[in-house]
């Protein structure tokens, strides 16, 4: 049986974090969840992930700072991992700004869970 794709979720809302976790676990993804961008970078130092879901508004280090730090990592495999922005305030950034920062895709809150699953599957197909 193939190993499940590993997903790192950075979301400070426990409700959204738990919903996303349950939905993706149901699709046979292995989930690790953290609360901010700094924890994403700490976790990435130790582990490999197939995709990262980043909330834009988080304490300590937000999603925009976090994706730029991921793209600047010395390890090319980790620096090129697909990263998806999750945001409720897309009006603060244009789609171009998300792309320039290094995001592969942007999902709007309230999350459409069918689209979430589709995007995660599309970006992690091996």
TrEMBL record:
Q: Which domain of life is it from?
A: Bacteria
From its record, what is one biological process in GO terms?
Answer: phosphorelay signal transduction system
- Presence of the UniProt keyword Phosphoprotein in the record: yes
Q: Where is the Response regulatory domain?
A: 6-124
PROSITE patterns, from UniProt? RESPONSE_REGULATORY (PS50110)
Q: Which residues carry this modification: 4-aspartylphosphate?
A: 55
Q: Does the keyword Iron apply?
A: no
Per UniProt, the keywords (alphabetical) are:
Phosphoprotein, Two-component regulatory system
Q: Which SUPFAM superfamilies match?
A: CheY-like
Supply the name of the protein.
Response regulator receiver protein
Give the classification, highest ranks.
Answer: Bacteria, Pseudomonadati, Bacteroidota, Cytophagia, Cytophagales
């Amino acid at each position: 049986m193939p190993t499940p794709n590993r997903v790192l979720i950075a979301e400070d809302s426990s409700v959204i974090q738990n919903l996303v976790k349950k939905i993706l676990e149901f699709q046979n993804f292995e989930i690790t969840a953290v609360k901010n961008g700094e924890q994403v970078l700490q976790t990435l130092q130790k582990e490999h992930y197939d995709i990262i879901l980043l909330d834009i508004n988080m304490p300590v280090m937000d999603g925009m700072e976090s994706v730029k730090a991921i793209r600047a990592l010395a390890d090319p495999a980790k620096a090129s991992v697909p990263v998806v922005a999750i945001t409720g305030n897309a009006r603060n950034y244009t789609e171009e700004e998300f792309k320039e920062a290094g995001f592969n895709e942007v999902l709007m809150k309230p999350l459409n869970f069918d689209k979430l699953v589709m995007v995660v599957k599309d970006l992690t197909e091996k």
